[in-house]
Design goal:
By secondary structure, this protein is an alpha/beta fold. It has one domain: Pyruvate Kinase, Chain: A, domain 1. 61% of the residues lie in helices and 9% in strands. It has a 5-stranded mixed beta sheet with strand order 3-2-1-4-5.
Length: 283
């Protein structure tokens, strides 16, 4: 009896855990739907800014002065919460490969997400860190803190050259980490102007371009952060689905053991009743 009750307690506990994981999975699915809409809108914003930058450079190509790349900054977007499998491990493996290629001239690391930051084990690169976003509504505040760090690093750059910013995150199209270096607007070769007249400006062209690039980077980072959070939630759904299936299998096995024990108890009770009946019939 006590063994069957222990199994029933295990079934009850596993059932509660399964219910919690199912709720977490449903929340992640809701977040995926929301991020998909936001990412589509942000993609249109980035595309329109790219077109505006190209139109501007058609008439003011001299505003884009060539400069050498400055110190390398890697912004690694991990997860703030767990239950997403090897999401952060893939990012760290990708960054480690890039660090080995760069040798002693390693970049500055800016990690986003507590779960990712806690896994940094390479003592040569003590990263700056920012708490990540758990839901889409938190991306704005996270990105503001990231931009504050970037501007502070740029002010500390002794050569005054612009930082070379590379973002490491998860790709939506393929399952794995990838890196993307942020580049300002470029004038595509062979491209012709869409308009006959140049844009009317209230600022000198170089000043306008500098502010447009800053705004473009900010918008482009919005797109990347939404994409990273979407990939994180997809990984969480996949991880939780696997965990729930394993729990359900374990619960089924425990229920089978419980039923076998219950049958044995019933058999013992029947035997006791039969023995009791036989004894009562004896003279």
């Amino acid at each position: 009896m006590s063994k069957r009750r222990d199994i029933e307690d295990q079934i009850r506990s596993l059932g509660e855990i399964s219910a919690i994981m199912s709720a977490m999975k449903n929340l992640a699915l809701m977040e995926i739907q929301k991020l998909t809409r936001l990412l589509s809108a942000q993609d249109r914003v980035v595309t329109s800014m790219q077109e505006a930058g190209a139109d501007f450079l058609m008439f003011y190509p001299e505003a884009l002065s060539p400069t050498d790349d400055g110190r390398a900054l890697y912004v690694v977007i991990g997860s703030e919460r767990g239950f997403c499998g090897d999401f952060n491990e893939q990012l760290l493996a990708h960054v480690q490969e890039r660090l080995q290629l760069m040798g002693d001239q390693g970049p500055v690391l800016l990690t986003v997400g507590q779960k990712l930051t806690a896994r940094i084990s390479d003592g040569r690169y003590v990263p700056m860190s920012v708490e990540g976003a758990s839901v889409a509504e938190e991306v704005q505040s996270v990105l503001i803190r990231v931009m504050d760090h970037i501007h502070e690093l740029q002010r500390q750059e002794p050569s005054a050259r612009p930082l070379t910013i590379t973002v490491v995150s998860h790709a939506l199209e393929t399952d794995g980490a990838f890196s993307q270096t942020l580049r300002p607007f470029e004038l595509p070769p062979g491209k012709t102007a869409r308009f006959a007249d140049p844009p009317l400006l209230n600022l000198p062209p170089p000043v306008f371009l500098a502010e447009l690039i800053d705004l473009y980077f900010y918008s482009f980072l919005h797109k990347i952060f939404y994409s990273a959070l979407l990939a994180e939630n997809r990984a969480r759904v996949s991880h939780l689905e696997g965990a729930i299936q394993r729990l359900e299998k374990e619960i089924s096995e425990l229920e089978l053991k419980r039923n076998i024990l219950r049958q044995e108890e019933i058999t013992e009770e029947i035997e006791l009743l039969m023995l009791s009946a036989e004894r009562s019939q004896q003279p």
